[in-house]
Amino acid sequence: MNNNENTSPNKAPTHKSKSDPIVEVSGLCKWFGDFCALFDINFSVNFGEKIVICGPSGSGKSTLIRCLNQLEEHQIGTIRIDGKEVKPGMKNIEEIRREVGMVFQSFNLFPHLSVLDNLTIGPIRNRGMNKNDASEMAMELLDRVHISEQANKFPMQLSGGQQQRVAIARALCMKPKLMLFDEPTSALDPEMISGVLDVMVELAEGGMTMICVTHEMGFARQVGDRVIFMDDAEIVETSDPETFFSNPETDRAKLFLSQLLSH
Amino acid sequence: MDRNSPPPPLRKRRITYVDLVLIGLVVAMIAYAVYRVNDVLVYNWNWDRVFSFILRYDEETDRWVTNLLVQGLLTTLRLAIWSTILATIIGVIMGYWRRCNNLSLRIISRAYVELIRNIPPIVFIFIFYFFISSQIFPMIGLSNLRHDSPYMDNALFRILFGDPRLFENFIAGMICLAVFEGAYITEIVRAGIQSIGKGQWEAGRAIGLSHFNILRDVILPQAIRKILPPLAGQFITLIKDSAIVSLISIQELTFLATEVAATTTKVFETWILVGAMYFVLCYFFAYVFGKLEQRSARSNG
Ligand SMILES: Nc1ncnc2c1ncn2[C@@H]1O[C@H](COP(=O)(O)OP(=O)(O)OP(=O)(O)O)[C@@H](O)[C@H]1O
Ligand SMILES: [Mg+2]
């Protein structure tokens, strides 16, 4: 395998500068039936930026990041990923999804495939990579998430923390330009959380653009460039993590943080 | 006593008085039925006469040869196997259509399932048989087959499809049964696909797999594990259901039994024997499938 810089998935491509937007969302609205889950969402994310989204349960955080790769279809507004508009029902949505990795709260690994096959299925099916190259790349990624010795096990045989790290590696296997995380640690036992967060921190330090829905304040402070606070389907506040957690502007954020801390 | 001695049984299983009374009642009922047939109806049992339709001594070749009922049983088995295969293909396609995004495919598959589930099997077979024999056979060129051609008149063909001269007859029965059972398999497949959580679809989409690839590499392999046990049950049901195609003169076990009963006039013996043959066949498969299921459950943890 040729080892030029493009084979390293957690390095943002060097020709893009930090000020180029990779995600541009404007006027985004989304309803489930009559229920408005997102209302007039506007934000953009530059290459290499790390965004933390937080907010109370039901505020629309998951819906928002799921709209970015069209796991949910929005009704109004525009979403651009790396300059390409993402429209509901578009034909080549797969091409955009291949550039956007996603990590779910409940891992969603493929239980009938080994850890290695979970990673290689994407590159083999989507990029037409042959099995050996894909396995080699997958092993490198498993190494990076500190789990390469489990490559031939099945997901059910791993702990939750290990499964989530496999899920991160699976997403990285597509060499995405952007990673989305939907509460990646909230289904984990407390002692498993730090292993997953460490991997995410390493990924962030490698320059990956990340949008994370998480309530892990330590993580947000350490790697976050901005915190987006959502409540009741809207973005209520955007600020840097230090300001947000120590001195939030809005009453809703204050209320949310006091509830978060009282746990 | 020490801790390594074998544990005493938790609870003794004994035959109670209730069991004795129940067993006594069953024996009495059977004895009464036999008495009625023997003494009240004055029925002359003649088992040898019907057994000769299973195995017959051929004096010319000086050998025992299988007779009508065994041939019927084999035809029933072939019918069940082939129509299960065909019905599974129909069921997988229709079962997928039941859940897909295309409205007209959903309507077609829904109509198929509802139509068949809400018509008596016999009525369906009569209608459909007329349709295939008058429309489909001429269309696919099955009406003018040459049965003595080397393609048809060979040992493999006989093992797979039975007597070449009865090939159209066999195929007609097979298609009828397959279309009929396909509706039930459609529902089994649909339930199997539905049982795979939407997280699996989303994970597949998130790494950019196409809809077809998700279905083939992610959903179906998992669904098949859930589908196999009810599918095996459906195969056994199909063996029993196949008796209805005797009504369109497909030469399977029940049809031939009707003929044996008519020529020998030994009605009781024939049908008891045929019932036993069906029972052995179905029970055998139920037993084997049960064992296979146990084993796969153990190996999957
Ligand atoms: N498929 C759906 N159908 C109907 N309503 C939905 C659906 N998905 C989400 N919702 C509703 O939309 C709202 C926002 O949901 P979302 O999952 O985005 O919230 P969230 O901020 O991620 O909450 P949590 O912290 O609990 O995950 C909720 O009120 C939820 O009930
Ligand atoms: Mg959520």
Give your account of this protein's structure.
The complex is a heterodimer of chains A (263) and B (301). Chain A has a six-stranded mixed β-sheet with strand order 6-7-8-3-9-10, sandwiched between helices. A four-stranded antiparallel β-sheet of chain A has the order 2-1-4-5, covered by helices on one side. Chain A has helices at residues 61-68, 93-97, 115-127, 131-144, 160-172, 190-205, 217-223, 241-246, 251-261, and strands at residues 21-32, 35-46, 50-54, 76-81, 84-85, 100-103, 178-182, 209-213, 226-231, 234-239. In chain A, helix 3 (115-127) packs across helix 4. In chain A, 35% of the residues lie in helices and 24% in strands. The longest helix of chain A has 16 residues, at 190-205. With 263 residues, chain A is α/β, with parallel strands linked by helices. Chain B is mainly alpha-helical and 301 residues long. Chain B folds into two domains: 17-43; 49-197 and 223-300, MetI-like fold. Chain B has eleven helices and two strands; from the N terminus they run H-H-E-E-H-H-H-H-H-H-H-H-H. The model of chain B has no long low-confidence stretch (mean pLDDT 88). At the A-B interface, helix 2, strand 6 and helix 3 of A face helix 8 and helix 9 of B.
Question: Can you describe this structure in just a few lines?
Answer:
The complex is a heterodimer of chains A (263) and B (301). Chain A is α/β, with parallel strands linked by helices and 263 residues long. In chain A, 35% of the residues lie in helices and 24% in strands.
Primary descriptors:
heterodimer; A: 263 residues; alpha/beta; 6-stranded mixed sheet; 4-stranded antiparallel sheet; 9 helices; 24% strand; disordered N terminus; B: 301 residues; mainly alpha; MetI-like fold; 2 domains; two-stranded antiparallel sheet; 11 helices; globular; binds adenosine-5'-triphosphate; binds magnesium ion
Shape of chain A: globular
* Global shape of chain B: globular
CATH architecture name of the largest domain in chain B: Orthogonal Bundle
Total strands of chain B: 2
Oligomer: heterodimer
Average the pLDDT over all residues of chain B and give the rounded result. Answer: 88
Q: What ligands does this structure carry?
A: adenosine-5'-triphosphate, magnesium ion
- Spans of chain A of 5+ residues with little confidence (pLDDT < 50)? 1-15
The class by helix and strand makeup of chain B works out as: mainly alpha
Strand content of chain B: under 5%
Number of helices of chain B: 11
Rg of chain A (C-alpha, Å): 18 Å
Strand line-up across the major sheet of chain A: 6-7-8-3-9-10
How would a crystallographer describe the biggest sheet of chain B? 2 strands, antiparallel
β-sheet strand percentage of chain A: 15-25%
Q: Helix proportion of residues of chain A, in percent?
A: 25-40%
Number of structurally distinct domains of chain B: 2
Would you tell me which CATH topology of the largest domain in chain B applies?
A: MetI-like fold
Unreliably modeled segments of chain B: none
CATH superfamily label of the largest domain in chain B: MetI-like
